[in-house]
Amino acid sequence: MTIEKTVNGTEAILKLSGWMDTEGTPALGQALSELGPEVKHLVLDLGGLEYTSSAGIRQIVAAHKQMNGELTLRNVRVEIQDVLIMTGIAQKLHIEP
Q1: 2-95 falls under which CATH superfamily?
Q2: Residue-wise pLDDT tens for the chain (97 aa)?
Q3: In the 3-class helix/strand/coil scheme, how is the chain assigned residue by residue?
């Protein structure tokens, strides 16, 4: 998985591409830990994400907790959105088309 990070003031955008599985999730965890305290809103752009495992779902939940709910998922593929809906997590997340 690759991550492209952009920080604009209090908002950070992480564009994910590839597979978010047990090998890819540590990279997201590292990117999240590098966000400074000035970042109050996080956008995960999942347009390039082809697959996520349960480890990826856990990392999304961890990001949601870290940001105190100020997390937006953007460009979520139907397959990934279906997984979020089936797990019940989609109800707690802000998902943009």
Answers
A1: STAS domain (3.30.750.24)
A2: 999 999 999 999 999 999 999 998 999 999 999 998 999 999 999 999 999 999 999 999 999 999 998 999 999 999 999 999 999 999 999 999 7
A3: CEEEEEEECCEEEEEEEEEECCCCHHHHHHHHHCCCCCCCEEEEEEEEEEEECHHHHHHHHHHHHHCCCCEEEECCCHHHHHHHHHHCCHHHCEECC
